[in-house]
Write a structure and sequence with these properties.
Layout: H1 12-20, E1 24-29, E2 35-40, H2 54-74, H3 88-95, H4 101-121, H5 125-133, E3 145-148, E4 153-156, E5 170-171, H6 173-192
Antiparallel strand pairs: 1-2, 3-4, 4-5
Bound molecules: zinc ion.
Length: 193
């Protein structure tokens, strides 16, 4: 399966690596007996001056858990999780290689959405903004999507493109990711024929 258009040097894994850089990773046992990755502070600070950020550790754990849960739901034979959190995306792709197309599609959506989330988590709104500009509005098809950082939504600037109450169409990161992966898939299909 082609890995889409996010370069390896700047995919979800690369961003997660950046996020996880401050923590030591060691597996803990999850609710189903699968090992999850936790990111706890180092017993001895090897990077003095970098405070342990509990919220960020929780954020990373939640991201990894979402990947693990989706993969295990689609392929209960998968597992154990890789020792390093940044390898979960490769792990997911590997174990969903023979999964139904819908599961692979969902996996791509989750990975792309997490990449955007990781970007935002490090304050990189510019990358998200660029991605939004490259995406046509899934509702009206125009190229007028605009990233609104405060709302964490991509808003369609086509004045005709509104919901039933007259508000501009606003896409969550999930809907944005769904639209992106759908476009990517259609392009792949078109180039394959
Ligand atoms: Zn629109």
């Amino acid at each position: 399966m082609a890995h889409g258009d996010t370069k390896d040097s700047d995919g979800a894994a690369a961003r997660l690596k950046e996020l996880a850089a401050f923590y030591r990773e060691h597996p803990v046992t999850g609710p189903e007996g699968h090992s999850y990755i936790s990111c706890e502070p180092r017993a001895t600070a090897v990077t003095p001056g970098l405070p342990f950020n509990a919220n960020r550790a929780e954020y990373i754990t939640a991201s990894v858990r979402e990947i693990a849960e989706h993969t295990l739901a689609a392929n209960p034979q998968a597992g154990p999780l890789p020792a390093s959190a940044v390898e979960v995306y490769d792990w997911m792709r590997e174990h969903l290689e023979h999964a139904p197309e819908t599961e692979q599609f969902r996996a791509e959506v989750i990975e792309y959405r997490q990449w955007l989330e990781h970007c935002l988590e490090t304050g990189d709104h510019e990358t998200v903004r660029k991605q939004v500009r490259k995406q046509a509005c899934p509702k009206c098809g125009c190229w007028g999507l605009m990233w609104m950082a405060v709302r964490r939504r991509a808003v369609c600037t086509n004045s005709e493109c509104t919901d039933q109450d007259g508000f501009s169409t606003a896409l969550s990161l999930s809907r944005l990711a769904h639209a992106h992966v759908t476009t990517r898939k259609n392009l792949r299909r078109a180039s394959a024929t």
